[in-house]
């Protein structure tokens, strides 16, 4: 979970400061304040049952929130955009961790500012561990340093400098794509590991780019094993040579680096099937009025593709990071355990109520859910606590991949239909599911022309009754789409 000095136990966090570290370029960072020290860019660690009791302090010139992506929390704890923290203000935060071991993350969620603030570097990882998780590390005989939690982002870099976020109309429609990877905020990341198994928990923290992750030693593709997804371990590992990871999705993988000097992680070239083309939509966020951009450039106001110069298109090959293998060889690493967790297949009652969502494209208004632009006041629907529903999510044929994210509750992927393009070849089951569909998810990519069925479980642990109505949201996690109104609220009664 490199670097070691950035690891902060969640329950020791006294204050979380959101600050703009570089007013000219607009780069921002989280600073964890502990009793005796301050840590920039913290990686938080916790176990189920741990408590966080802290204060979030907003030192940005814009409203912000801290959203705990993937956690089961109440409306106020969740940090969605309902209660933005204004510049100079603070918010007290307290909750208990109830989720399975896995990689979760924190990022801003103030409507209209989310894409800009996440792109500015406001991403922090939260690694939850438990007994199953620790048993796996032991079974892999991981050398110290061979377990890493990495946020993979992309940015437009020229002369070694990350250019400020200033999307054109084209970027607002397709998403903001960079030309270089930033791994835990570093360019050209090289991570030292020892021979044997390496366990990587990876987050796609890109605003919009889909990653097709693979490992290479020179020109040879090195296979790996999928251990887990968004909310923790799969029942059993799956051997793979590539895996899709869209914005906000996570994978947990094991790769054996024995006998190698280095191993490169890359995003392979693929056809992302961006088939929608609009006249150019410039988002106007009333929420932004009266607040400056984080950097000198303005946001979503350039009618032409002027700032696109250095973007690599979605689906272009992109080097991500390199594992530098050093130290003594330790013999053959142990074989992977056949079972990783007691996660079973989702069981769906025959009479489970179903709900249909459409991911639409409109040439004038861009991408929307059910043709309805986001409104903070609107509630798309309400569900009862404990309800179990089947969601049928349909992406139109003229579209692009949309990573759909649900706040507050995990779900299981039951089935995919109509999958074309590069995802199709990865389906391993008659249900059309991909290997990453086998775990508990909070974000799932829906390809153009696809219909996917999800089993959504709105039950809460008994100690998390969260009295009264709780509002949450679901949205596309392409952040330009999210800020561009591809989001809706729902409430739990
Ligand atoms: Cu990762 Cu609604 O967000
Ligand atoms: Cu979220
Ligand atoms: Cu989208």
Attribute tags:
globular, single chain, 7-stranded mixed sheet, mainly beta, 6-stranded mixed sheet, binds copper (II) ion, binds CU-O-CU linkage, 493 residues
Structural topology:
Elements: E1 7-9, E2 15-22, E3 27-33, E4 38-40, E5 43-46, E6 51-58, E7 67-69, H1 75-78, E8 90-96, E9 102-107, H2 114-119, E10 124-128, H3 131-139, E11 147-155, E12 157-158, E13 161-162, H4 169-174, E14 180-183, E15 186-187, E16 189-193, E17 197-204, E18 211-217, E19 220-222, E20 224-229, E21 232-240, E22 243-245, E23 250-256, E24 262-267, E25 318-325, E26 354-362, E27 366-369, E28 381-383, E29 388-395, E30 402-406, E31 411-417, E32 443-446, E33 451-457, E34 470-476, H5 479-483, E35 487-492
Parallel strand pairs: 1-5, 2-6, 5-10, 11-17, 16-25, 26-29, 28-35
Antiparallel strand pairs: 2-3, 3-4, 6-8, 7-9, 9-10, 11-14, 12-13, 14-15, 17-23, 18-19, 18-22, 18-24, 20-21, 20-23, 24-25, 26-27, 29-33, 30-32, 30-34, 31-33, 34-35
Bound molecules: CU-O-CU linkage and copper (II) ion (2 copies).
The value of Rg in angstroms is: 21 Å
Structural class: mainly beta
Number of helices: 5
Low-confidence stretches: 301-308
Strand order of the largest sheet: 15-14-11-17-23-20-21
Ligands, deduplicated: CU-O-CU linkage, copper (II) ion
Helix % is under 10%
* Average residue-wise pLDDT: 92
The description of the largest β-sheet is:
7 strands, mixed
Strand residues, percent: 35-45%
Q: What's the β-strand tally? A: 35
Q: What general outline do the C-alpha atoms trace?
A: globular
Distance between the termini: 38 Å
């Amino acid at each position: 979970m490199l670097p070691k000095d950035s690891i902060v136990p969640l329950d020791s966090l006294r204050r979380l400061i959101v600050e703009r570290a570089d007013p000219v370029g607009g780069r921002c960072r989280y600073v964890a304040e502990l009793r005796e020290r301050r840590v920039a860019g913290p990686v938080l660690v916790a176990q189920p049952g741990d408590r966080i009791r802290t204060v979030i302090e907003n030192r940005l010139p814009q409203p912000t929130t801290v959203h705990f992506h993937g956690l089961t929390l109440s409306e106020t704890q969740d940090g969605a955009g309902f209660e933005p923290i204004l510049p100079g203000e603070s918010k007290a935060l307290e909750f208990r961790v109830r989720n399975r071991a896995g990689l979760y993350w924190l990022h801003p969620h103030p409507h209209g500012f989310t894409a800009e603030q996440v792109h500015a570097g406001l991403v922090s990882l939260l690694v939850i561990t438990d007994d199953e998780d620790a048993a796996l590390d032991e079974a892999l005989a991981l050398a110290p340093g061979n377990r890493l939690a990495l946020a993979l982002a992309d940015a437009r870099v020229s002369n070694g400098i990350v250019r400020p976020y200033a999307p054109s109309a084209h970027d607002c429609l397709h998403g903001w794509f960079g030309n270089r990877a930033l791994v835990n905020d570093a360019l050209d990341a090289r991570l030292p590991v020892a021979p044997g198994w390496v366990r990587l928990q990876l987050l796609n923290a890109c605003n919009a780019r889909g990653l097709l992750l693979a490992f290479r030693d020179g020109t040879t593709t090195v296979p790996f094993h999928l251990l887990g997804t968004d909310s923790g371990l799969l029942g059993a590992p799956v051997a793979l040579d590539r895996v899709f990871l869209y914005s906000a999705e996570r994978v947990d993988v094991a790769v054996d680096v024995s006998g190698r000097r280095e191993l490169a992680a890359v995003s392979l070239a693929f056809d992302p099937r961006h088939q929608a083309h609009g006249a150019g939509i410039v988002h106007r966020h009333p929420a932004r009025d009266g607040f400056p951009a984080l950097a000198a450039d303005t946001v979503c106001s350039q009618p032409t593709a002027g700032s696109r110069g250095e973007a690599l298109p979605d689906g272009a090959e992109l080097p991500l990071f390199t594992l530098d293998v050093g130290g003594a060889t330790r013999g053959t690493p142990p074989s992977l355990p056949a079972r990783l967790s007691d996660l079973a297949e989702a069981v769906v009652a025959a009479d489970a109520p179903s709900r249909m969502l459409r991911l639409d494209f409109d040439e004038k208004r861009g991408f929307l859910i059910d043709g309805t632009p986001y409104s903070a006041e609107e509630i798309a629907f309400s569900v009862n606590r404990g309800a179990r529903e089947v969601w049928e999510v349909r992406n139109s044929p003229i579209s692009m991949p949309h990573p759909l994210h649900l706040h507050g509750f995990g779900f299981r992927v039951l089935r995919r239909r109509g999958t074309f393009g590069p995802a199709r070849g990865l389906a391993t089951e008659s249900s059309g599911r991909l290997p990453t569909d086998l775990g508990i998810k909070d974000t799932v990519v829906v390809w153009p022309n696809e219909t996917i069925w999800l089993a959504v479980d709105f039950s809460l642990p008994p100690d998390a009754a969260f009295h009264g109505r709780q509002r949450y949201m679901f949205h596309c996690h392409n952040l330009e789409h999210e800020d561009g109104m591809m989001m809706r609220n729902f409430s739990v009664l």
